[in-house]
């Protein structure tokens, strides 16, 4: 060899030994120098994307290389049994042993958990939390799993700032919470938009919590990307996907024991009998019960004639059962990953021999495939059967009978037969069961998604993704009602003879309906993401079109030959009926986003959507909805690091967005007609006639929300303390309401909806968290506060309304009541006051608001409280020590009131608290008024603030205590991990209502109560 070439080769060898790591473009070792083979391969993430810049090192040496832009690498002269270490920021390191034979090593790297927590899901993508500029809050699916509640909507409140929620029923199948993002901002529909895996879909409440990866809430301009459907905020749900690696099976089971949070304790028979006498005496009528009879009601000496019935005990179980099974399989290779799950749940009603229950079966398959370096595919399929079962009588009807059940009458006779009805056959001991028939409501839901991502090889950072979603549901409703038998005591019998009587319908009746809805959505996006030194830019432009169609068919028959044959053909021809309808709906949208940041310090986002909907007339169907947000990470500045070193991270951000709300009845711009129930006779045929239903408004358009947000984010003391706070202001205009209130009734005019309403809504979101480790003890404390209060600025009120009665300037739905200022204790108090004619001691006192020396409708005032809270608080305490873990969630709500007045009197019973502390001539300092009969008294028939309960409360919402069985024991039987736990929901409630649950709906207390859940369960991973 020529000497100068020998010297050059030796120099290259020396340089190669000190260069670390090697570049992927480094000169290869010459074959005559290489004693061992070369290794080459590719590094990808779990979704099949190539990972450039991954460091590949030979363990124990300084030799290494980095993967190129396609994730490829080549490492020369590798000895047998050498260990290759793959390292990349944000991913778990991987070690691979070279066996000396296979020269190709492909690696799939997983993001570590800390990195995953640094991202948040936003509309049509994800963002790093450090670079987000919008008000976006997120909760992990694992947090939602801590709640034993089967309805996801009940697990959000208190965990996410910005959520206002009210749960007004625990009835299986209909036990969800009303959710408002940052409260209510419109006089119309305030429901947020729910997006599941990228597409607006129904059924969020019924999703399996074990399938959910995360839930994000878009609260400000970040929601503008959803245009005319975004004004009420957006809930983004992301389901789990497979991860590379060997198959992993997870199985979960829990068994719950359910009881009402609170049932009203009603007066006993002796007390009620005395109240009945008082009511009759107030009306000048003879009393009904003698002292001896009242004594018999109390001593139980004659349960046939003088019972002491607790109707709730007679009809309601102490404990109801609820259980859930879930199993999932996940795993994959560098070419395909999968997540497959199945689950079932059962939720029983609280009635004895309950006809009420809810059953659900659900399946899901999320598949991801890598076709090659340029094409990735995604296929998702989810199915669910929602099986609701009820008696033909509604829950409201059943609980009305329970509230009105007189304790002086038998719900069940001593021989076990059901007693008489309250009215119309309503004995809740019977009407809560299948003895009166049944109602079955089965809803079959199918959601399918196919998506593809295509990288454009000749433009770095550019790719196209397209998706198609098809959703279908079938609902079959069937209600069969049959007569039932109740028993009354024969008044002429001395041996307690009972007389059976048929109640309810006179002949069996059957109603059936079949509904089908189908939705298809196509979406196409052009994306670009690139880093240029300190500059990062991400952008996309997209097109989306959605079509929804639906059909309904119904039928009715009665006069069945037997109540044992519940099929439509067996009904009589007389009075039979059928009907049907259908609808079609479409949207077309163009939208996009541009995001930019400089050194993750100066941040900017711009969203837009050009939205079209058929709800509005041609020429007014398209609207432009922009959203702009910016942020500044001050803690990255040199002056900050020197001056405030204990604040590790500090960001300020602000946003403005204009969003729409088109959630209004369709075709209001057209004159619409309907058929009359009667018609015109032509010969022997009755021909239906048409009448005009609606006066059209050709100028109708969507509501417009201008949302402003200012926020800060901070982390202090080595990230042990974190704070995120937002102030928001929203002005909703063009709200669709009728102008009828401004038109006198005598005109007879019915006007169409117009875009005339204006509402302001403002408040704060706050979350403060602290976490720390003390040796092996880890704990976290997270507090959330949400305040949102709206104010009507304009909505065309009736003219000449007194200032104190106008709703303008008050909250949406602020009620109009007489102001109650106490109870008359004596005759002198009545005489010395301005009072309603006929007032007497024990009555509620009304204030003379306008000082006109009389009590009339002008003395009613607008009360600036509604049934919806204005503030929600959450406090989460969690801890881990060795194999034990603990989580406690407290949730509170303030600012709400409910109008609740029981339907009591001669018609039915009184709550015990009211009965015991009622005004009587011997108890003149009582807190409750005298006994009354339904709405006979002015202070009952005229709605007033005495019955407007302050429903502020605090709840122990969730409690979860778990133990992870040591792996040294589980692995002996082939189990990776096993956790056993006990948990609970709504275990403790602190409030001033006492009689009813503080989230009870307005009315007479006639509702299916909220539930308290005690739960045991286990999670096993194989």
Radius of gyration: 34 Å
Sketch the major β-sheet. 22 strands, antiparallel, barrel
The fraction of residues assigned to DSSP E strands is over 45%
How would the global form be characterised? globular
Show unreliable segments: 1-34
CATH class category of the domain at 119-248:
Mainly Beta
CATH structural architecture of the domain at 119-248? Beta Complex
Number of alpha- plus pi-helical segments: 13
Structure class = mainly beta
CATH superfamily of the domain at 119-248: TonB-dependent receptor, plug domain
> And the CATH topology of the domain at 119-248?
Ferric Hydroxamate Uptake Protein, Chain A, domain 1
Distance from first to last alpha carbon = 62 Å
Beta strand count: 48
Mean pLDDT: 90
Helical content stands at under 10%
Keywords: Cell outer membrane, Membrane, Signal, Transmembrane, Transmembrane beta strand, Transport
Pfam family, one: Plug
Organism: Chitinophaga dinghuensis
Domain TonB-dependent receptor plug: 131-234
Tell me briefly what this model is.
By secondary structure, the chain is mainly beta. Helix content is 9%, strand content 47%.
